[in-house]
Structure formats: structure tokens, C-alpha cells
Amino acid sequence: MRALALGALLALAGPAGAQTIAPFAGEHADFTRVVVRIPPGTGWALTPDGRERQLTITADGARFDLAQLFQRIPRGRLAEASAEGPVLSLGLACDCPIRAWEERPGLVILDITDAPPEVALPPAPPAPPRRVPPPDPIAAGRAAGAALARALPPPTPPDAPVPEADPRLETLAQDLGRSIAAAAGQRLLDVAADHAATGQGVLPDAPLPDMPPNMRIATVLDRPDPDAPPVATPPALCNGSALLDRLLGHDPARFTEDLGRLTRALYGEFDQPDPQSQLDLIGVYLSAGFGAEARALIDNSPDPVAGRDFALGTADVLEDRASNSRMRLAQAIACGGAASVMAVLAGAEADAIRQNADQLALTFSTLPASMRGLIGLRLAEALVDAGALDAARIIADALQRSDWVSPGALALVEARLDRARGLPVDAALRLAHEGDASSDTVQTRLDLALQTAAPVPPEYIAGAEALAATARDEPTGPELMAAVIRLNARSGAMTDAFAALDRLESWMSGTGENRRLLGDLRDEVWAAMASNGTDLGLVEAVLSREDWRDPALLPQTRRALASRLLDLRLATPVEALVGTLDDPEARVLRARAALDGGDGTAALDLLGEDDSEAARLVRAAALERIGQHRAAGDEFATLGDTGAETRAAILDADWRRVEGLAAAQEAPAPAADLGPLLGRPPGHAEIALTQPDTSSPPADAAGAAAPAGAPPSETVPAAAAPSPLPDPGAAFDRLGLVRRSSTLLAESERLRGALAPLVRPPP
């Protein structure tokens, strides 16, 4: 039948003025049906009697094509057919009655049924002789008068006089209009644009023919609350949203039964779908979560589907498919009912979600249990992301009473709520004890571990990596692998982090978003290597890999790598890492690399006028490298490094500066525990001259020491005490060599005393 209908449609699609009509027929048990498709609005007529019937259509230029008429029927009832222009002649094989009607505009149906069986009637008895009554003159006169009355034309009534305009009525109409306008402005009357006229006025049984059809009058007594403002008219985009509540109200427990019943009732005669059965079947699919099947049924419908945009948007939400219908559904969050709930899942704005959070939680609690279990997790997550935590908690409580949600899914909802309330540690512990092995749970637990820096068992990370490998072609796979890479990098397992990064790169195509994700992960891994990696691991990674040269690495990561490599005396990769950077820190690193390569002049050129401490250290070393010891000493003096300044002064043969630095240095503490050397502590006599001798009591005038406990006696004043004679060795020790040698002797003695217990022979 469908193929015949398609052929008929193609036949009707010919050029204008030459319409070809191809009748087709089907054989049934009790009748033969002939279907003729003509243009809608075309007249037709069928002769009523005889075995030769003619179907005539009133279409100019139309002709019949009988090639398909006898393909599916025998010639039992319809024996032959012929056509001439717009006339179709049908030759019947019996005295078969034909029932003809127009099913819908343009579809003419002829049912040829079997002839009724002939019943043999008994012979009728002879009729008695009839007595003819005499004619009635009164009846004959009445018949003649009736025939004469029918022959005469009807009398024409005189024209009614035109009523004159009454100015009082016009004044009354103007006053009534002003009163109605004032009442409407004060919200005492409601003007409804979508109201159909009932034919009655304000008072019962009072017709109001001049009332506009889109207006009604309601008093404050008609409102539930007289003090409340009138109910706002919903926007036009909400038209049909109430139908979604009925579509999502089917019970999935009866899915098999409803599917079989509606599938059988979906297509009627000639493959014409029943609109109501089609709508019910769409609701059965949506209630069970089969969005793709519902969308296919809507797209293939020849007639418009009631609430099409809401049904299509819901189907796309269930399948997580982006479409224009889903975007339109997201704007219907204020429509109420199931449409507002599905609008949240379609991607409504966060502000609108927070404003309608209470109504969303109430509507969700009235949905069927299966639908709550199907969309509850996603709805709770959307509410949490929008900041509507109270509504999300209500939805979580509703899910706890649902048989359609597993305990692991409930734990995931609770963990996300804990995380949103600022309790990530509690959320991680909840998932560790109650969570399941689903990809969402594993992803959330890994994210919480990254957020709280909590340890994760290595076997759990290995399981997450295996789960990511099974979902490599889905969005969850790369997300899981990214979390695994970050955890390995954070814990210092750099070999595992690089291996996982290489595996993820082999999965993903070269799209812009994938390249961005890989670049971010590569930067995080190399940053972790620069801060947490071992020296051996860093050297092995740089020598065995080439992605550290990636220009997408962040500047701070490249500077950190270059600094670590310079500390390891690997200056060659520094230029590749920071050669394109032009900030002061990068120039200092490049100057260090040039200095390690023996080019002090290039290091000075790179430093320029930078006066930071790091730049001054490198500049001083570069000046020493090129032989400018005086300038190097000045840089060391600015940095406060006296030892380096003294070394530079010695190399510059500036002995006066060396003497000044030696005099400014603090003398080392006397090492009295090492014993006297030549009657003095270790060192030159100059050390003894700079410190007063407090080891003996003051002498009296005769030079003898006062006995202990004796009364005080007259002594020589301090001002009159003779000054010590200058030590001739002080002039010799201008370079401080003797002082250094004495310090070395003291350190040697201290080291000898420390090591003596270790080398002492056993008794």
C-alpha cells in the first residue's frame, strides 16, 4: 500500500495542466477497494446503477492511468476498467453495489461489495378484487389549489425603514467605553485577548453582538483573592508546555504492553498514522528514556505533532544531543511543570535556575519515580552548579526514596553536595566508603583528591587509567586520563605521568580543543618535573623526550626548567627553553648559560642595566671571567660578599683595598681551649695587641700582683700606664696571611680533637 501511495503522489507531481491520476485497488475478504487520489477541492460524481459505472471528476486536463489498477486484485468483482479524459469507466462482474465517499479532501474511496444472495420467495396468493372508491371532490380541489400555489411566485415583503441614529445611544456607548477603560486601567476588569466570545454580555441571557470576540469582562468577585493582581498571561513560548507533563507521565513498567498496543494502532488504512496513537507512543518513548526513538517518530510524522518543540527538546536532553530544539527548551524554565525541569537539563541560565529553584524541586517530586531516577543526578548537579543547594538537597532526598537509583549514585549526589558546601574532605571520604566504580564516581573522587591533596592508592589510579582506556572514544575517557596524569605528576611519579600523557595523545584527534587539553597537561607535567623531580629523573626526561621544546609551555614552566638545568650545569637546553622570552628573569638565565659556556661578554650584553641581585651575581662572575676584577669587586661589595670582594681585590693587586677589607673583618674568637702557642693563643702577635689581657689581675706600682683578698691599695692610674710596644710583626702581616694561617691552625686543631675518639686505639 505504501508503494502504491508513493506512486500516486509521484503521478500527481507532474506538470501543471496535465494531471495524471493513477487509481489503485486492494482486495479484501468482503469487498474490493478502489482508491482514487485527486487534487483537494476537486468535484467528482459516480453513476448510481448498473454494471457499468462512470466516475467523473471536474478537473481540466486530468487523465487516468490504469497501469496499477489490477496489480493486486483479481477480476472477481471488478472485471474491467477504461478511461477517457476525466471519466473512469468501471465494468463490474456482478450486480455489486458500490459505496463511494471522500475519506479526506482529495482521497476518493470506492468499496465494491458482493451482490446480496437471491432468496426464492413463495408464490403470492391471488389478489382479491379491489373496490374502486368514488372520487372525492374536496381532495381534488385541495390538490389543484396546492399546485396553483406552487406555480405562483412568492410575495415580496416591503423594505423595512432604516432606523435613525439616536444620539443618546452614542453618548451612552462613549460613557460605557470610558468606564470600561478606567476599570481596566485600575485592574478592576481583566481584558483577555485569548478569550472566545460566548454570545452573552455582562448579565445572563443578555446578547452583546457588538462586543469584540477577543474581550471578556470579569469583576473582582471572579478572582480567588480580590486583593491579588490578575494572573499574568504566560509567554507565547510556553504554548504547548503543559502537554509535556502528560507525555512524561507514562509508566515504564508497562512499556512492553503500551509499545505493542500503540504500534498496532499507529498506522490505520493506507499507512495513515493516527495522531493520538502517535503522540502516546512518543510519550512512552520519552518516559522510558528513549530519546532517539522519540525524535525519529517526530521527524518522520507527516502531520504536525502537538508540542513538537518541547518533545524534541526533551528527546535531545535524554540523548545529550545539541540542537535548536534543546536551546528553545532551555528558555522555557518559567513555564512550569515538566517543561521547567527539562529546561534546566537543556542548559538554562544560572540566574533563572536560582529564581525558580523552589518550583523546580516541587515539580521534580511530582514526576514519576522512573523519570526522577533518570534525570535526578543531572538535575541535582545543575542545581549545585547554579548555587541552588537547598533545591539540590530536596532532590537528593527524593532520590533516596527512589527504587530507580543505585546506592552508588546516591553517594555521588551526596558527595557533590558536600563539595559544594565547602566540605571536600567529607565528600572524598564518602566516595571512598560508599561510591561505586562508575566513571562519574571515579572522576569525582580523582578531582577531590587533586583539590584536597589527599593520597590516592596506586591501585585505584591504575584502575581509573584502565577505565579511561575503555572509554577513550567518549568524553569521559580523556577527562579521566587527565586526572590520572595530574595525580601522577603531583605525587612525583613522573615516569607514569609521561607514559599516561603519551597514551592520551595517541587516543585524541588533532582538533583545537584536544590540542589545548594536551598542551595544558604537558605544561603541568613539566612544571611538576621542574619543582618535584629528581636530578636524575630530570636529566633522563630532557635527554629522552623532545616535548620540553614545545613553545606552548608556559613561560614560568620554561624558566623553572632552565633554572634546574643550569644548577645541574646543563646549559645547552637553556636557549631552547627561554631563548624566545624577553623578561629579566629569562635574560639572567640566558646570561648564566652563556657564562657556563665561557662567554662572559655575551653574559654582560644579556644582563644590560639589570640591577637585581641575581643579575649582579651573574654580572660579577662574568666580569671576573673577562678579567675586570675591580668592577667585579664593586658588584661583590654591593651584594655584601666580603670574601668574594677580597678575592677580586687580590686578583686586581689592589693591596690597599685588601688591607681595608682585612681591617674591617671581625677577628675570630680566641681558641683558648687549644692551648698556648709561644706564650699566646694561636695566631700572630697582632691579635694579642688588639685585645686587652684579662687573664691576670692588675699589678701595683711595684709591678707585683695584689694578693687575693687583700684590701685595695694605691695603684697606677690607667691613664699613666705605659702603652705596649708595637709588634714588628704587624707591619709584616699587611695581607692577612698570618691571620689566615692561624685560623687554619685553629681549625686543624679543632678537627683533630673531634676525630681523636675515632682513631684512638682500643685499650
Automatic annotation (TrEMBL):
<feature type="region of interest" description="Disordered">
    <location>
        <begin position="664"/>
        <end position="730"/>
    </location>
</feature>
<feature type="region of interest" description="Disordered">
    <location>
        <begin position="143"/>
        <end position="163"/>
    </location>
</feature>
<feature type="compositionally biased region" description="Low complexity">
    <location>
        <begin position="697"/>
        <end position="722"/>
    </location>
</feature>
<feature type="compositionally biased region" description="Pro residues">
    <location>
        <begin position="152"/>
        <end position="161"/>
    </location>
</feature>
<protein>
    <recommendedName>
        <fullName>HEAT repeat domain-containing protein</fullName>
    </recommendedName>
</protein>
<feature type="compositionally biased region" description="Low complexity">
    <location>
        <begin position="664"/>
        <end position="685"/>
    </location>
</feature>
<feature type="signal peptide">
    <location>
        <begin position="1"/>
        <end position="18"/>
    </location>
</feature>
<keyword id="KW-0732">Signal</keyword>
